[in-house]
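Hey all, quick one. A colleague (J.T.) asked me to put the FE2/S2 (inorganic) cluster job into the tracker so the inputs and the structure tokens live in one place instead of scattered across chat threads. No bug as far as I know, just bookkeeping. Sequence used:
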Amino acid sequence: MPDQTAGQSTGTPTNEQAASRRAARLTINGADYAVDVETRATLLDTLRDDLGLTGAKLGCDMGQCGACTVLVDGAPMYSCLLLAIEQQGRAITTIEGLAASGELDPIQRAMIEHDALQCGFCTPGQALAMKALFDREPHPSDEEIDRALAGNLCRCGAYVKLRAAARSLAGR
Ligand code: FES
Ligand code: FES
């Protein structure tokens, strides 16, 4: 899905809004997107509203829940706290990128096998936090697992099963 253009379908902007819009190029899940963004737009809003990548969820919108987690250059980040315009030149991975080939990532399979979700709202963020962990440490300790997932809240309380999924990936 290379070189797509988006972000121009949100109605007629006021003069003030038009003045604060900029053309940006974002690299998301290995594809380049040309998108016209407001300079104050968050990466989360740009992903969801301009690019139709709705896997990252809007929870608290203030950096406290982790529902909006994406990977930026391999590190888990709250996309509600990032300006889209500042992410140019960085490799962004959303949950849509994990199964881009049509096959679920081992992390997604482990989460399903261990029933590590209920409503699923936090699940994309949890999966990406886990992906960042296992990409840098294939055999994390329980403490490392807990630390890696500490920034992602689950209102359904699936923590025990999330940990079980992570432990299985670690070979335990
Ligand atoms: S929506 Fe970003 S941390 Fe809650
Ligand atoms: S599965 Fe519902 S919030 Fe985590």
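Adding what we noticed when we looked at it: The pocket of FE2/S2 (inorganic) cluster (ligand 2) is lined by residues 117-123, 154-156, 158 (CB under 6 Å). The chain has a mean pLDDT of 93.
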